[in-house]
Protein 1
Amino acid sequence: MAVRTFDVYTYGGGDLLWEVFNAAAAYMGGGDYLTLIRLFGVLALFWVVVELGVRKTLNWHWFAMFALLYLVFFVPKTNVRIHDRLHPASNRVVANVPFGMAAPAWLFSFLGTEITQALEALFSVPGDLRYDKHGMVFGSRMLAELREARFEDPLLRRNLFEYMRQCVFWNVAYGFYSYRDLYYSQDLLNLVFSTTRNSGIRGMFYDTGNGRAFKTCAQAAAALRPAIQKEVRDRLIPEWAARLFGHETNDPLAQKAMLLSALPAGFAFFTGAAQGA
């Protein structure tokens, strides 16, 4: 007779489920488990005999219930096929899993994955933010990582602070742009570091690492912009990618590609929702 196979779906827990089902199959197929079952069977039969002798009633329900549960839920052995939607490499098959363990796992995981897919289809979540692709609240975690980003280069931080104090503040004061422009800008880098929106007279003392030199705001913007882009490209993006996708792949290039694919959709989805609200 062919062995029934149950499909169990998970989002990131494939390795854990494989260990759990393997442990259950190994234990329930061992001698200790069979000895324990025999012991409970003897105790159930003993209780029936005691009640028959003391109360003069044949209360066979205890023994019948034990035998029924054992024969239905623990004797039949099945295969469990684990489907990890987030980590396909964890997809495996575990043999000799008791029916009483495999069937409920299949039922609840099937209902959970169907409800998840239906809700995401109903609310039109972008593909890169779907629960069945990167896990729970991935978009929120991604934006939280962005909010916690900090420049670590001391020269860049010092020059950026001075630029904000000596150039951006006065650009707002003199009407080059407004606080509203800064708040609602879709391209803050181009707005703040535009050479055409910066004074060619006002300036700041720019720290070159070998001393401080005076630069106009337009010159400082031209120097800071590539420095910021380099810091983001060479340090921040690889770090974000490793934190967000390190559990999916160990390849830094693949992690970076996944982040750059998910970032625009996530940012557009959440900022668009906020603006719409």
Protein 2
Amino acid sequence: MSGRARWVAFAVVFGVLAAGLDSGAAQTAPRNAMPATSTAEDNAAADVGAAAAAPDEPPSKTFGPEDCKRLPGGNAPLNRLTRMVGAMAVKNLELTYLGKPLHQLAEEDFADLAGLLEQCKEVDSKLAAFQSRRLKALIEDAKTTRAVSLEWFEDVRIEVLQMSGRSDDIRRLHDLMTELNNRQFEMTPADLRKYFAWLAERRDALYAEAAKRVAPARPFDPGPTSPSGSN
């Protein structure tokens, strides 16, 4: 066989072997490849799907017609409040629901609310549970803000009761009344009225106390009205 023929034969054999190796690699690559990592979107979709497929938990209590009369039990706009993204205004704690001001709703009231909405108003169980949790969170946040102002006023009360009617005491009391007005959005309107009335009463008492300390002026004596020695 000539040299050229040998080179041709070698090239053919090499090509066949290379093709076989490539074919084997193509078959084994998928088995050796790492699986694709799931994305956050995939995980979120899986969570939503699992939540949707999960059976609803049965209500812990059964409510009858008399229980349903507790709804709404006031003027609080439940749907609007629970759709809010931000915090609830403290003044809204005076709104009522389930027959109570919002700031008086207790843990058992929130526990009953979801069942009442579901059984009495035929609200979807998941929505009813959400509204109960959301209303509780809004109220607790507003109550925390209010508690700070109520604690502040207790310190103010102690300070004012120690005042004695001096001019600097009266000026300080007027400053406290101004600060109270500035805190009006951190308490309920009823709180503001009660505290302002108390400070006004103490202010009047201090003014009365200060008036006692001023010595009364003696009557002016103009002297005799007739010239000396005249009759």
Protein 3
Amino acid sequence: MSRVLGGALVCLLVLLSSVTRAQPMAAPATPQAPHVSALMGELEIDRIIEVQVDRLADWNLAIGGPAATRTGPASVHPAWQLVPYIDGRALTGVTPLAVDLGQGRLQFHLRITAQNRDTWTHLLSPLTFQRAVQFSVGLEQVDPFATDFTRTSRRALLTVINWRWLLAAVLIVATFSAAFCALAVHTTLLMERYKLLDGTLAHRFSLAKVQLALWFFVIFSAFLVIWLATGNFDTLNSSILSTLSISAGTALGDTFVKAAGPITATGTLQSGDTDGFLAPRWTARRFMRELVSDDEGCSIARFQMLAWTVALVIVFLADVLDDLQMPVFGPELLYLLGLSTGTYVAHRLPEIQRDRQRNDAAAQT
């Protein structure tokens, strides 16, 4: 009897052990993924923002970081390697200024660095005041955290141009433009003197001066727009300086060519030119006619210079508005601009020669 009871007990123990082994081991609890739930501050360049990330401490501990505040090298603190993500683009180099794992808060300074300059260029174009973006944080080259700040929610607005700075820039440009236009209309700022057949002096518009003034205002305005949008004032490049130098050289060469001719500052002014400083009355038709014509009529040298200047100005402005940076003209375009302006200056020499001949003929009579 005892043997039967012992055998039954052994069988029961074996059965219980097999049932226990058959039951699966409970998997360790997986921490929930972090989630961006709040954003304090304005999404704008050179601003400091604070981000609330739920379950940040659990995530930091799960991937090898300490649960407490920073006490060791940054390599063992994953939370200190997080960067902001705007529209899925990581702002490389913008690591936290402060980390509070207990509260789940991160603080970032949104700044432009050499590593993220191209990213900011894409984010800030096209130009507008504000636009809705998706905002999150995460490690670089890894999917960012889940977020409440999506484009459709319109809870995160990226400020491209601050209206206060834009107003200041508009006032500056408007002041300079108004002063320039007043001088251009009422004085001989964009004009040159020339001598008529009867020996009297008159004024006409100078294509070289108009080109120099146009490039000056275009580059000046682009510089202000880029600075307002990106905070970067180191935007001028060698091709822009070369373009402005070519325009200045054209005006200077035109001055030297005129100095070699009979056109001088002495003489009797034409009846319409009552003052050597004040400009005669002019119209838009006269303005265009004098830009593209000389004493023999419409000049192809003047027309091609004006056409290439307008074309390059349009390309320049379109590139600035699209990329928020000064365009880089290749050497071929700079050669073309130099050839165009050089052709104009070269054709000025026969004009001066004809003026000299007419002046000599008038003196003999």
Protein 4
Amino acid sequence: MSSAYDEERERYLQLYHGSDSNARSGRQEEIRTTPLFSLAVKQQVDSTESQSDGSGPTHPEEDINTAASDIMPQYGLLGFNIEELDDAGQPQPLLINTNAPNSAFICGSQGSGKSYTLSCMLESCLIEDVRVSKLSSPITGVVFHYDLDAAGSVAEAASLCSRGIKVRVLVSRSNYHALKAAYDKKHGKSGNLTVVPMLLQDHQLTVARMLKLMSFDQGTSVPLYMEVIQRILRDMAVMGKRFSFADFQTKLDAEKFAGGQQSMMNMRLELLKSFCATATQTRMRLGVDNGQSVLSMGRPVGGEGRDGTIGLSAGFGRLRAT
């Protein structure tokens, strides 16, 4: 009995890492994923890690431009804690962790700096600048901008183009010309900012997305033509074939509707078609390599009601191009 126990225990112990230096401890993981930390905390973490691996303590005068530790390899300057002063009477720098996923909710009264704060966060993730960050691997950003006045509302996050970041703005086709003219006025646009229609391929369309794009509210009474549309979509889904908008249109054309029903259905279909790409148009990519995409989520011309999408409107702050 004892021998069987010892053999089984030994087999399990081979999977136990214990305090193996190559394994992440729970304490290290907690520090590694913290969203915000001060420069003093980072210096203490670096010093502790250096002592534990035998390389000796780091120097107190180590600043933001020194090599980052393995636990906090990427970060950016977000602001200063003006209530906590160091030994020299200076405010303590606060850093945002750009090496671990996190979420943030920014709130405040008008003019309190919400857009400015969000801009600093975006810059820390997108721009490699040794003056204010450690960022060996800049990431791709996606900003959802929502405003009821879609034709005249410009996302301030697009101003990152003036810092050399490639920015692509996706807009509804009906608002394309108005928004392109507005974005063309952005400072520093040259070669860095493009505005393109947001067009969906057939494989990107689902029943829920199509109903959303047709501004159909399922909480209200369902008109006859919408019941027919939903039935056709369900039947096509049951067949298990790849969705084709052309096939959907053919099946819908075979149905007969009264004059009033037909006109209302055509209006919603035209709204849906304004977001659909043709067979000859290239596939839309959401992300921009080492850049940022801004999705303008306001309702298109002819759309009814709010589409329920909540997004972010970012401002540009901290480092402005001159």
